[in-house]
Amino acid sequence: MSNKATEAQRHRDKERSRDLVLIYSWFALCLCVSVAQVSHAQIESIESAPPRYTWISHGRVEGHLALAYSPAAAFSPDNTALAVVIEDKVVLMDLSAAGVRKALRPRVEGVTDLTLQSANYVAPNRLFLLGSGLFRGKDKRTVGPTPTMGFQWDIDQDALVGKVNAIGASGGFTPPRYFPQISYLAMYKDSNFELWQPVTGRAGHITLPSLTRRPNLFEFSPDGHWLLLAQLEASSTPDPVVVELSEHRFVDALRGHQGTVLSMSFSRDDKKAATACEDGKIRIWSVPEWQLLKTLEGHQGPVHWAEFSPDGSQVVSGGEDKTVRVWSAEEGTLEQTLEESKSPILTVAFSPNGEYITGSAEDVVLVWRRTVSSQ
In the chain, where are the structural domains located? Predict the structure, then answer.
């Protein structure tokens, strides 16, 4: 090999060696950056780990909350009080002191034997009440039963606000249901859902011509995009059906229930739905894919109600087995069982800030408070 060729080969070897050094240096730098990023992510994960919570008993009050729909609006907007119905009275439970703050005695002119069904906060100092009674004539004799009445009651003045509205007086409607997340009351009759907003008086209706079977249970999503229908009369399946309200059409069904669906609810971000079933299970579904995400099992007997926490991370349920159970909505695992009730739990709800849970039987309301676990 000539001296010129040998010199050229040496030059090429030198260039290749320098390139390899640069490549190895770049790879080592990337590896260090990558390792540093992973380590930093691990530190962040540890620092941001949520605390573990336990729920402790925080009092009970004779009476009940809404027994046919979500009682979430029984909590005051500022999380300081809970409105409990006792026949013709409303007792305001002070949540911080776990005692009675005030008792209200609603009255309707010309009506006797008033029985209240529910009390819902529509403002910090105002309740929306549903109830019925007996008409009283001028001679003070009772004439007959009233239809369901809806009216607002001022907490500070213990007085009627506005007028009393007869709800479903023409007959044929499903019982009125109040939906706290959309602040509307709704009833169904002959392919139509009649809607009414108690505060503004705004009314409207949704017509579903293809809906020919009466749904005895229905639930609206907070954004008003979806409607779930269950307990359809003369239906061969207990599975709820999904309606896309913007298109007024059926789009899917939530399949797999082995008994009557007793309640349905949406998370507040509209990304999940939960169904509580007579078969003892709670099922969590994705929205809008309508895929089954988790099945929560543990109740002994029918589950009457299930509802998401305000942040959607938990589900609270109440059942015929007299227990209230708190679940992880993400993992589908049972976090705690609350066994203070001596009667079946019919409805449950979280307070607006997620710090309290309430469970209602027919004649007693129980409250639990969230505390940071020592474990």
Answer: 1-46, 65-182, 224-375
